[in-house]
Each structure stands twice: as C-alpha cells, then as structure tokens.
Amino acid sequence: MEKTLVLIKPDAFGQNHAGDILKIYEDAGFKIVAAKVMQMTESLAAKHYVEHIGRPYYPALVEFMTSAPIMALVLSGDNVIKKVRELNGATNPAEAAEGTVRKLYAADKTHNAVHASDSPESSAREIPIFFSACEMFY
C-alpha cells in the first residue's frame, strides 16, 4: 500500500477541523496508520521544509507552522498520494474545487489547512521526520 504524510496545520487544527478533515480522508477509503498531535519546532520545520530554506516566504512559513499545535498523520491506500492531494484541493483556497479540504477549511494561500506529500519520494523522506516505524500500524 502506498503511504503519504498529511499535516493538519495550526489554522485548521486550532479551529477544531481535524475530525472533519479526517472524515474526508476516511470516507475516501484511506486508512489512518499513524497520528499524533504535536508542536512543530524550528528544527523540525527546517527538516521538513528543507527545499524552501532561503526563499523569501520561508520565515513566515516557519513562524506559522510553529505557532500552535498540528496533527501529523500517515494515510495508506491505493494511489493515496495523488488522491489526497486532489481531496485537499489547490493551495490557494480561492482556486480550490468545491468540497475540497482547502475550499472548506483554508483561509488563504498561507493558512491553507493541510500539507500532503507530493510524490512517493517526498513521502519516503517526510514520514520518518514525524514518525518512527513503531508508531505506524498497518
């Protein structure tokens, strides 16, 4: 089974949308194999967002992601990476399709409710940043 990392960001988690977002993923047939609530640190953000270091928006991204708790999870299922990104919708909620996570729960392009791995390579790199093998249950 393919796996993907999802982060329910501080905006959506803080507004109590985690359960609604999880229901969207479960209703689509995906299995939650790991989940935890945590506070992202600057060092964890640097590991996760390594490709963004040095870009003009990086400081604001780190400030946002470390501002409040997040929910990290791993989902598994057939073609889960592509399908979860479709369920999440466009990064800019104004451009997201009706019924997508971002259309429903995101405020703007920065406060956009969720992150999901964009490829099998990203998933393989990102999951171990947040979860050890003994924290995942298949």
The largest sheet, given as strand count, sense and whether it forms a barrel, is: 4 strands, antiparallel
Strand % is: 15-25%
Give the strand order, joined by hyphens, for the main sheet.
2-3-1-4
What gap, in angstroms, lies between the N and C termini? 9 Å
* Helical content class: 25-40%
What multimeric state do the chains show?
single chain
Question: Which class of secondary structure composition applies to the elements?
Answer: alpha+beta
Number of helices: 7
* Structure summary, number of beta strands: 4
Using the CA coordinates, give the radius of gyration.
14 Å
Mean pLDDT score: 97
Q: Would you summarize the structure shown here?
A:
The chain is of the alpha+beta class and 138 residues long. The chain is 40% helix and 19% strand.
